[in-house]
Specification:
This protein has 287 residues and is mostly helical. The chain is 69% helix and 0% strand. It holds the Pfam family Rce1-like.
């Protein structure tokens, strides 16, 4: 009884520490296998698949144990973790459309270069599903990261933080989780200065994306909204602005205009296209 009282009285500190612990545990699970093999080696990927699967089983235990009863008066734990059938179709397609608008510039480059035709080739998809690196980047990483950092952590943060504060706090842990790439870059021969510069850039980019992902999660009330956006962003990667200058002048102007247009439309449509009503989100944690 005394332990339960202690947890209730210090639930904010404990929830915050639980999120930090899950962050380090997620990263640590990738390195429990002692090996000199690269991160792209099939053996490494398979082992890490097993590690993150274990993390996906462990993380919701913390959410279930620490989520306060008063939080559950508005909805059950499955709703807080983004598991709902109602609004599923909208959650799968509308956030994808919204994210694609943001990437209008890179998509224009793909269209002009003709690389989009690759997606019409059945062999592209067959070979992709047989490629462990592709599966890691497009399936396992987005699914496991959104499950742990959004579904399992966000309900804990919402117990103590305002929704907007949680949107920008949780992603800091998500960004920090990507600092482990420093170790891999150093192992591959990069200088410390170069590795730190790249890691800081990745931290900035992943933190910003994490905030967008958390926003989608809270507005839609669906796990698969940020998962789909994450898959899309992982596929296209960070826009290569220097590549624009490889195109002829008129195409270059079109691409630059679409970069700006995409950003403008994304900002304009972000709120209306994530309206909780579209997704039948009754919790409306970020209305």
């Amino acid at each position: 009884m005394a332990s339960m009282d202690f947890i209730e009285q210090n639930i904010c500190i404990i929830s915050g520490l639980a999120c930090v612990f899950l962050t380090f545990l997620y990263v640590g699970s990738l390195y429990i296998w002692r090996s000199n093999l690269s991160r792209d080696h099939p053996t490494t990927i398979k082992r890490r698949f097993l590690s993150v699967c274990c993390m996906m089983l462990l993380a919701p235990v913390f959410t279930h144990a620490l989520l306060k009863d008063e939080m559950l008066q508005k909805g059950d734990i499955y709703e807080y973790m983004g598991f709902r059938m109602s609004g599923m179709i909208s959650a799968l397609f509308v956030p994808l459309f919204l994210t694609a608008i943001l990437f209008l510039g890179p998509l224009t480059m793909h269209f002009i270069a003709g690389t989009w035709k690759l997606y019409a080739e059945p062999m592209y998809w067959i070979s992709s599903w047989q490629d462990l690196v592709w599966l890691r980047n497009h399936i396992m990483a987005p699914l496991s990261e959104e499950w742990v950092f959004r579904s399992c952590m966000m309900p804990l943060l919402l117990q103590c933080l305002e929704p907007f504060t949680a949107v920008f706090t949780g992603p800091l842990l998500f960004g920090i989780a990507h600092f482990h790439h420093v170790h891999e870059m150093l192992a591959n021969g990069r200088s410390l200065k170069s590795a730190l510069f790249i890691a800081l850039f990745q931290f900035s980019f992943t933190t910003v994306f994490g905030a967008y992902s958390a926003y989608l999660f809270l507005r839609t009330g669906h796990l698969f909204a940020p998962v789909i956006a994450h898959i899309f962003c992982n596929h296209l990667g960070f826009p290569n602005f220097f590549e624009v200058f490889h195109f002829p002048l008129m195409q270059r102007i079109l691409i630059i205009c679409n970069f700006l247009l995409g950003l403008f439309l994304w900002c304009y449509l972000l709120v209306p296209l994530t309206d909780p009503y579209i997704y039948d989100n009754k919790l409306q944690l970020l209305a």
